[in-house]
Amino acid sequence: VQLQASGGGLVQAGGSLRLSCAASRSISNINFMAWYRQAPGKQRDLVARITSGGNTVYAEDVKGRFIISRDTAKNTVYLQMNSMKPEDTAAYYCNCQYNFLPYWGQGTLVTVSS
């Protein structure tokens, strides 16, 4: 599975961005798809995850601000980021697990200025 992430950029604090992750195959039977992020000098952490059944999980520090969704017709997963904070600055990575193997997209950089 190839994952192509896009949508990163520079935004002011309080602003919004939407990230997209396009998969090279149908996502209908992919167990889950997720977004992770990694700030400079820090580990890569889960931001949000959505299962094939549509169930979602969010990191505590993004709950109420970020929304993960998917469009199975477009084989794409989105991360809508609202009320952004400088601490959201990071490289964001798309991830999925298929046939028990993890797949990663390239990172897309998000910078939030104060």
Which properties best describe this structure?
mainly beta; seven-stranded mixed β-sheet; 114 residues; globular
Give a description of the structure.
- By secondary structure, this protein is mostly beta strands.
- Helices cover 0% and strands 55% of the residues.
- It contains no helices and 11 strands.
- It has strands at residues 3-6, 9-12, 17-23, 32-38, 45-51, 56-58, 66-71, 76-81, 90-98, 101-104, 108-113.
- The strands form 2 sheets. Strands 2, 4, 5, 6, 9, 10 and 11 form a 7-stranded mixed sheet that branches.
- A hairpin with a 4-residue loop joins β5 and β6 (56-58).
- The radius of gyration is 13 Å and the shape is globular.
- The relative contact order is 0.32.
- The mean pLDDT is 96.
Order of helices and strands: EEEEEEEEEEE
Oligomer: single chain
What is the typical, i.e. mean, pLDDT? 96
* Gyration radius over CA: 13 Å
Structural class: mainly beta
Percentage of residues in DSSP E strands: over 45%
How many helices in DSSP terms? 0
- General form: globular
State the total count of DSSP E strands. Answer: 11
Low-pLDDT segments, ≥5 res: none
User: End-to-end span in angstroms?
Assistant: 37 Å
Binned, the helix content reads: under 10%
Q: Main β-sheet, in a few words? A: 7 strands, mixed
